[in-house]
Every structure is written in structure tokens, then in C-alpha cells.
Design a protein that fits this description.
Layout (H helix, E strand, L loop, with lengths): L1 E2 L2 H8 L8 E9 L6 H13 L10 E5 L5 E6 L5 H4 E10 L1 H12 L10 E9 L3 E9 L5 H8 L18 H23 L6 H15 L3 H15 L26 E9 H11 L3 H20 L8 E7 L12 E7 L7 H19 L4 H11 L1 H8 L11 E6 L7 E2 L2 E9 L8 E8 L2 E9 L8 H16 L4
Helix pairs in contact: 8-12, 9-10, 10-11, 10-14
């Protein structure tokens, strides 16, 4: 039995027909040279279904108490794998537009709580010898970083490697842990070559002490600073979720219908902007999204005078904290959509994130979790009261998940794109999630079909926003 954390249970409590609480991903592949499409896909289906022992959470379902409360995960002794692994086809020649429409519909349906909370769909019918894979897992079981760790058992950097074990199997988990042990042994050998302890070692010891002996004074100080920023918003660059965000067409109650679009942007372009403007890749990503939303709302004729804000998840997962469940904190970024100058928008967004990071600096994972629960309490409260459309705690969610640094393959099939698909909620009907994938940043944008009209424009708006930043940085 594996108990759920308060954050995990929160995703289950928040779920409804209008707000499914699962995360997913669309993987785009090119078949190996000379491979027969039907044989390859049916073999892939066979391997996926062939696990002898299932890893968590793929072989586990929810166990509830007599009062109906969710208690923990238990092994599903009657797992029906054909229900979870499915084979679909687009009408040939399938375009990306039809693919996005299909996965948008798949993403809007609730997972069956009487079964393990996941599905995988192998999708054929695309042009240029491509096929796709769509998967979703309940957010109570994984966060974005945990999902990428699970995916590492799925792909390989070697195009010649062939795997006969299911990525959902315990064999996949064992192999992943062996790989991580080798990487850690290599890192430990490099550390031992120097006599004094490294900052990383000191950080690990400090974190262990905080985990053992309780919370530090730093948490209380950070909460005081956050409260001060809420009471006097003009005095600090720090953004908070305690103030209602401005009203837009996507700051509303949502329906269960979903729309999805995706696009890749060159990582080198984003990195160059960050270096030229003195920020991080994530700062540039936030500025891209802020610039895109400014253009999008201007085209709709509803750009508000006040700036939009974004909740940005911060991973606090360590090797010791395992792969199941959520291990995440959250900050709020000022997207500065009220400013026309892209350089000034970038500076305001970067400063708001830097002040947020300063609050988290020195905290252990437990402290960050508690800090997040307390500072994001308004979002939970207005959602529970059904008032999120009237008092949206932030405008959108922007999540940046680290992925593979080089091109990866599944049994010789090259993975051309990894497009994440996350959850939306009343009050913020639009979600940006991205994964760094080799030389690209792969953006997946999920929105309520009724609340975010013409959202496919955001793909062009993101490109234009990046071009504006390049020009402001002197790169064009």
C-alpha cells in the first residue's frame, strides 16, 4: 500500500467532468528505415501489453475507505491491459491538425477510477512515415518531472538498441535505477577527486538535517515577505496569487471540451536571448508566453490594463523521494502584458521570478511544499467555492520540464517531438507546458474549447514574441 500525499489527494478532490486532473503527452515518431509500419506498430502494441510485473502507478488502482475518502494505492489483481493500451488510426493522409484534434478529444475524457489511472494510444495514419503515441496519467500519480523519469525507460539514445520489455513494467524501472546508479557512481568518483566538500554535498546534508529536525526559520521569514508583497504590491517586484488576475476570455468557468496545439522552437534561439539579456531559459520562455498572450488578447480586442500572471511549478523532486506522486512547489510570475516594450516586459518578468526564487532559497522540500500550500491557498479556496471565474488567482499556468539533451529513439524509431498536455481549471482556461527535447523546446498548449477562441494563433504569436525578444537583445 502507498498512501497519497495531501497534494495528490487535492488533484482527486478537484476533479470533475469539466476539470479532468490528468497530465499527458503526445510523442511524434519517424519509423526506422525499411521498417513495415503495420508490423512495427503491432509489435509495439505487443511489447507495451507484455509486462509480467507492472510498475507503479500502471498496475495500481485507488483504494477508498468505508467513508469514501481516498486512502492509498493498491495492486490491481485483475488488470485489463487491453483497456489501457489502444490502437487508433487517422484517415490517411493524416495531418497534424487532425492529430491534434484527436488527442484533444482523448485528453478531455476522465480516467476510470475503478481501474489504474492511465491510458496509452498508438496512432497511425500520419504522412512521411510518421506515427504518434498519446499517453495520459492522473496527476495524483505523477507530476511533470516524474512523468519524464518514467519516460526515460521508454527511449534510448542508441538508434540500434531494441527493447523487448514494456515501459510500464518493473523491468523498465529496474533498468532505469541501474542507469541512475551508474550515473551517480560516476559523479561520486569525480567528487572524491577533490578533498573539500562540494556545495552540492553540503546542500544534501543540510536538506537531510531539515527533513530530520523540522522546518527552519527561513520558511516563516519567506511567508512574512510574501504577505508583505500581498499587502503592498507596489513596493515589491514579487508577484503573488493573493490578488485576482484581470478578466479575459479565458478567465472563466470552463467546459469539459478541450483544444490542443503544439509547436517546437529552437533551443539555441531561446538560450541566445537569455544570455544576451542576462536571464535564464525559463525567463525567456515566460517572456515568450507573455508576449504571445499580449498579441493574442490584442487581436481579440480585450487586452487588460493590468498585467497577466502565471503560476509556474518548481520541481523539488530528489532521488530519495521516488517517482510516484507529486513533489512540486509553485511561484507566480508577472507576465507584464501591460507593457509594449519586450525588453521591459522581460525585465519585469525576470525580476518577479528572481524574488520568488529568493523566497525558496534555503528551504528543504517539505518546507517548499508547505510554503506552496499556504501561498496558493486562495487558488484552492476560490476553486472550492466556485468563484475562480470571478476571482482568478492567476491568468495561466506555464510549466517547463527538462527532457533529453540529445536525439532519442524507441526501437529505432526517432522521436521527433515530445509535446506535453496538462490540466486547466476554472479561472485559467489555458495552459502552456513545454519539454526541452534535444535541440528544441516542444510546447504543448491545452485550452478549454469554448473559452479560448482561435487559440491556434498562439503558435504564431509565440514565434513573433521570440522574434521581438531577439530584436530587443540585438540578435536580429
Amino acid at each position: 500500500m502507498h498512501r497519497l500525499s495531501p497534494i495528490d489527494q487535492g488533484f482527486l478532490i478537484a476533479e470533475s467532468r469539466e476539470t479532468p486532473m490528468h497530465v499527458g503527452g503526445l510523442y511524434l515518431f519517424t519509423l526506422p528505415e525499411g521498417a513495415d509500419e503495420q508490423e512495427f506498430l503491432w509489435d509495439m502494441h505487443r511489447i507495451f501489453c507484455g509486462a509480467e510485473e507492472w510498475r507503479r502507478p500502471f498496475g495500481h488502482k485507488l483504494k477508498t475507505t468505508a467513508m469514501g475518502a481516498v486512502a492509498h494505492w493498491v495492486t490491481d489483481e485483475q488488470l485489463d491491459v487491453d483497456y489501457h493500451v489502444r490502437h487508433s488510426a487517422l484517415a490517411k493522409p493524416g495531418r497534424y491538425r487532425e492529430l491534434f484534434q484527436l488527442v484533444g478529444r482523448l485528453h478531455q475524457t476522465l480516467l476510470d477510477r475503478h481501474r489504474p489511472l492511465w491510458e496509452t494510444h498508438i496512432i497511425e495514419g500520419l504522412q512521411s512515415r510518421q506515427f504518434a503515441l498519446y499517453s495520459k496519467v492522473h496527476h495524483a500519480a505523477v507530476d511533470g518531472v516524474a512523468a519524464m523519469r518514467l519516460a526515460k525507460a521508454f527511449y534510448s539514445t542508441d538508434p540500434e538498441e531494441r527493447r523487448e520489455y514494456s515501459p510500464f513494467s518493473m523491468e523498465a524501472e529496474r533498468r532505469y535505477r541501474e542507469l541512475r546508479a551508474k550515473e551517480k557512481a560516476t559523479a561520486d568518483a569525480q567528487v572524491r577527486a577533490s578533498e573539500p566538500p562540494t556545495n552540492q554535498e553540503v546542500s544534501v546534508v543540510s536538506e537531510a538535517l531539515r527533513e530530520t529536525f523540522g522546518l527552519s526559520r527561513h520558511l516563516m521569514g519567506s511567508l512574512r515577505e510574501y504577505a508583505r508583497a500581498w499587502r503592498h504590491p507596489g513596493e515589491r517586484k514579487l508577484a503573488t496569487s493573493w490578488h485576482a488576475s484581470p478578466q479575459t476570455s479565458f478567465a472563466t468557468k470552463i467546459t469539459g471540451a478541450r483544444r490542443f496545439v503544439a509547436q517546437s522552437y529552437a533551443l539555441d534561439r531561446v538560450k541566445a536571448v537569455g544570455e544576451a539579456m542576462g536571464g535564464t531559459i525559463n525567463d525567456v520562455v515566460l517572456a515568450m508566453c507573455g508576449g504571445a498572450l499580449r498579441r493574442y488578447l490584442t487581436d481579440l480586442g480585450e487586452l487588460p490594463d493590468a498585467p497577466l500572471s502565471a503560476m509556474t511549478p518548481v520541481s523539488i523532486r530528489t532521488e530519495m523521494r521516488g517517482e510516484l506522486g507529486n513533489s512540486v512547489g509553485a511561484l507566480v510570475a508577472n507576465l507584464a502584458t501591460n507593457l509594449s516594450d519586450p525588453a521591459e516586459r522581460f525585465r519585469v518578468t525576470k525580476d518577479s521570478m528572481n524574488e520568488g526564487k529568493d523566497l525558496l532559497r534555503g528551504m528543504g522540500p517539505k518546507e517548499v511544499e508547505l510554503f506552496t500550500q499556504l501561498t496558493q491557498a486562495p487558488a484552492i479556496l476560490v476553486g472550492a467555492l466556485g468563484l475562480a471565474d470571478r476571482f482568478p488567482p492567476f491568468s495561466t499556468v506555464i510549466s517547463n520540464v527538462p527532457g533529453p539533451r540529445q536525439t532519442v529513439y524507441y526501437n529505432g524509431a526517432r522521436i521527433d517531438g515530445m509535446y506535453p498536455m496538462s490540466a486547466i481549471w476554472h479561472g485559467f482556461a489555458l495552459n502552456f507546458t513545454l519539454i526541452s527535447n534535444a535541440g528544441n523546446l516542444d510546447f504543448g498548449i491545452v485550452a478549454c474549447r469554448e473559452s479560448a477562441p482561435h487559440m491556434q494563433r498562439l503558435i504564431d504569436d509565440l514565434e513573433d514574441a521570440l522574434a521581438d525578444l531577439e530584436e530587443a537583445a540585438g540578435l536580429r
